[in-house]
Design goal:
mainly alpha, two-stranded antiparallel ribbon, extended
């Protein structure tokens, strides 16, 4: 096992510090930060639509991600007002390449806050009062290797 190179260490530091990642699409640089709930919801809605051209679906998802901003209210406003114009502009006028869309999707997959959601769900589940709990004397003796006998 060897020490990772400095560029890999920098990438890990960016992820841990939650710094926005920079990606270039059609000559313009975008900063992709953490996705807001509205952006994640819109992205999921786009990807679950049936019978749609995959190229168009990917362009819609890319437009949704590029409209994500630091402010949640601004993101909501942009998704509500400009999304339908922006994806058409990227798809029909700019004719965005799938390689550029893949770069955007590669950056954004690290910006979904799934780990805190999973931890919160686990903690909330453990605090429910509907869980079946029993006392140690009710459980009975355990086997030497830690496995309990079932009758």
């Amino acid at each position: 096992m060897e020490q990772p190179k400095i560029d890999i260490q920098r990438r890990l530091d960016e992820l841990l510090e939650a710094e926005p990642e920079k990606v270039t699409v059609r000559g313009r640089r975008y900063r992709i930060g953490w996705l807001h709930n509205g952006t994640t919801r819109k992205f999921s809605h786009i990807m679950l639509k049936k019978n749609e051209d995959p190229w168009k679906k990917n362009t819609k998802a890319c437009a949704c991600i590029l409209l994500n901003r630091k402010s949640g209210l601004l993101t909501w406003f942009l998704l509500w007002s400009w999304y339908w114009i922006y994806w058409r502009w990227l798809y029909y006028i700019k004719n965005i390449e799938q390689v550029e869309i893949a770069k955007v999707l590669d950056c954004v997959k690290k910006k979904i806050q799934s780990e805190p959601l999973m931890i919160a769900t686990i903690l909330a589940t453990g605090m429910m009062d509907t869980l079946m709990t029993i006392a140690r004397h009710e459980a009975g003796p355990a086997e030497p290797d830690g496995v309990q006998l079932t009758i």
